[in-house]
Amino acid sequence: MLVLSRRLNETVVFPAINAAVRILSIKGCVVRLGIDAPREVAVLRGELQEAATLTTALVPRASQALPVHCLDKNHRQFDKELENIGKGLGLVQLLLEAGNVGDAKELVAQLRENLQLVRQREKNESGPAPEKRPEAAHRGLKALVVEDDRNQRELLAGFLRAAGLSIDTAGDGSDALDYLRSQGRPDVVLLDMALPRCDGATTVRHIREDPAYAGLRIFAVTGSSPEQFDLAEGPTGIDRWFKKPINPFELLHNLTEELCGV
After folding, report:
1. Residue 2 belongs to what domain range?
2. Which of 14, 17, 57, 135 is 20 to 30 Å from the Cα of 39, by its Cα?
3. Is pLDDT at 63 greater than 60 in this prediction?
4. Contact (CB, 8 A) for 203 and 195
5. Could you say which of 87, 104, 129 is where a domain stops?
6. Domain count, the chain
7. 3-state class (DSSP) for residue 36
């Protein structure tokens, strides 16, 4: 390992790959780095490297999936493939946080291909009186996704739409309240708590104070913990908390369980 000492605004250059690292600021034990590298050079924080290299192992290509005749009546292979897709969406989020947009887009395309194949297999599956799938129970449900991060908002909304839910979105609490006043009530609100203008806790209180929204389910989907907010659990506050980063299939299962009783 080469060890170098650099001062503020000094650089380290990697001429073989046309890249350079500049010291932007030093504050306490934290050093901010500016990295200038060609588009084709992947740059990841160290803690994300393992996640990125696991992409291929966790999310196999659709062409590598088992043929239809290998799927048993209990849908175990379906569930395994859906679990892999859920893990893949978590990796997409990590790649986006690392600024690796190219790899994230490629992985999204791969996940979409896998999901379409799984859904086609389920559609083509034949047999007498097939067991009712819990996943089918949520079709037709309407959800409002409230999230200020556009990438996270569109990823979650797109996943839920692909699963059969009707999805609308809002960028913060103010937009969410405007939506409820103008568009009526959905079956559930999926609410981030750290929002601009009108945060999650304020949004919840406004909703709970209005009799028109009595019984509306509100699920917090957030990196924050319940202890940070003075909110009750249940129908007078937050019905359920989901900690980021979420497994979207686990969220979908819980939505079905809570809203449809299956």
Report:
1. 1-41
2. 57
3. no
4. yes
5. 129
6. 3
7. strand
Q: What is the pLDDT of residue 129?
A: 45
Residue 7, pLDDT score: 87
pTM for the complete prediction?
Answer: 0.53
* 30 & 110 share domain: no
pLDDT band, residue 205 (cuts 50/70/90): very high
Q: Among the three residues 88, 110, 129, which one is the final residue of a domain in this structure?
A: 129
Question: CA of 122: how far to CAs of 65, 209, 248, 254, 262, in Å?
Answer: 14, 43, 19, 21, 19
Provide the CB-side half-sphere exposure for 199 (13 A, CA). Answer: 9
- Pick the closest to residue 85 from 155, 189, 166, 165 (CA basis): 155
Q: Give the C-alpha separation, 89 to 113, whole Å.
A: 13
To the nearest 5 percent, what fractions of the chain are helix, strand and coil? Answer: 50, 20, 35
Tokens 């859904």 sit on residue: 119
DSSP structure string for 144-179: EEE-S-HHHHHHHHHHHHHTT-EEEEESSHHHHHHH
Instruction: Look up residue 28 and give its amino acid.
Output: G
CATH number at residue 179: 3.40.50.2300
Question: Rounded distance, CA 253 to CA 262, Å?
Answer: 9
pLDDT exceeds 70 at position 125: no
Q: Which residue carries 């949004």 as its tokens?
A: 203
